């Protein structure tokens, strides 16, 4: 079989899925990408920070386009219980270590860069929420909730922490053996933190292009203001009790309000409190559980998982435990 006879079905159009689409296109491997949402580059999410991973964008040929809409982090500081552990010179250290500057941007910008870099964007399909995956004698069929069927040779799930591809892997594994490791893997995953995040504009002075991390017992903060004064911020809060991975909560506005009230007067940077950031958050904000896992099995049959569906790094800056 030549690579022209081989077709990949990519599920998920986030950064991982779009990066994979670029790789397949440049290798001249046929594919189709199925994205559940109505837009491929929605304005959801908050700030992201890239350094060593910029090498991937460089290899894909879209690094300059990324730089054009990103903000270079000039200084970095980490403070633990009021004691600074890393100085601003750390940002320059990262440049020498990775060969690239540390950058900040909105998640949407990264999606736009990866999508615009594709020569054939017709292979990126939206409103295609996957419902079921069936292995056949000649490959694999992917069924959507709208009744459409897409046939390929393998399926690659780049569909995040709530991966339908991974769920289908578990279902297939259970038919082979109820004791297959895939069936019970989530029972061993604990969620220990939640994150509250947002994008804010405030009237108080805030140092531009400083990536600041403030750690205290059971919680930590990350803040960054770009050159225009747009502040990306996040609170990582330790949960009272760990939660099993298969019981990850979907937080309500009541949960958000309770955490904001609890941490409202916390100073996240000199003279700036969480309350200041919350009151100034006119854009994206929300609260999510922070999953943390590296699953032992990343594939089953013709199904493969990548990105958060296979390994999810808990984005804890630093929390002091005593």
From TrEMBL:
Q: Does the keyword Oxidoreductase apply?
A: yes
Essential cofactor(s): FAD
Q: Which GO molecular function annotation, any one, does this entry have?
A: FAD binding
Key words of the record: FAD, Flavoprotein, Monooxygenase, Oxidoreductase
Q: Which residues form the FAD-binding domain?
A: 6-313
Transmembrane regions:
none
- Domain of life per record: Eukaryota
What does the sequence similarity comment in the record state about its family? Answer: Belongs to the paxM FAD-dependent monooxygenase family.
Q: What is this protein called?
A: FAD-binding domain-containing protein
Source organism (scientific name) = Cordyceps confragosa (Lecanicillium lecanii)
């Amino acid at each position: 079989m030549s690579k022209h006879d081989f077709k990949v079905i990519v599920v998920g159009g986030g950064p991982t899925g779009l990066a994979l689409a670029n790789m397949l296109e440049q290798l001249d491997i046929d594919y189709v990408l199925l994205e559940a949402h109505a837009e491929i580059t929605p304005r959801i999410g908050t700030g992201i920070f890239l350094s060593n991973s910029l090498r991937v964008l460089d290899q894909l040929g879209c690094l300059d386009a990324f730089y054009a809409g990103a903000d270079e982090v000039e200084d970095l500081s980490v403070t633990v219980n009021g004691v600074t552990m890393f100085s601003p010179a750390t940002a320059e250290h990262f440049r020498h270590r990775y060969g690239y500057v540390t950058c900040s941007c909105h998640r949407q910008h990264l999606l736009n860069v990866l999508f615009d870099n594709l020569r054939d964007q017709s292979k990126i399909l939206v409103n295609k929420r996957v419902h079921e995956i069936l292995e056949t004698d000649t490959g694999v069929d992917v069924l959507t909730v709208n009744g459409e069927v897409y046939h390929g040779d393998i399926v690659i799930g780049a569909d995040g922490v709530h991966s339908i591809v991974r769920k289908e892997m578990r279902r297939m594994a259970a038919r082979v053996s109820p004791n297959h490791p895939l069936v019970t893997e989530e029972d061993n995953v604990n969620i220990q933190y939640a994150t509250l995040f947002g994008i804010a504009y405030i009237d108080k002075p805030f140092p531009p292009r400083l990536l600041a991390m403030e750690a205290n017992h059971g919680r930590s903060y990350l803040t960054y203001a770009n050159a225009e004064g747009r502040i990306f911020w996040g609170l990582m809060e330790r949960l009272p009790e760990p939660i099993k991975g298969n019981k990850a909560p979907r937080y309500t506005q009541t949960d958000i309000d309770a955490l904001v009230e609890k941490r409202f007067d916390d100073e996240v940077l000199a003279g700036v409190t969480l309350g200041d950031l919350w009151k100034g958050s006119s854009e994206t904000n929300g609260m999510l559980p922070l999953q943390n896992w590296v699953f032992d099995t990343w594939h089953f049959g013709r199904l493969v998982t990548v990105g958060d569906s296979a390994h999810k790094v808990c984005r804890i800056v630093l929390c002091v435990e005593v």
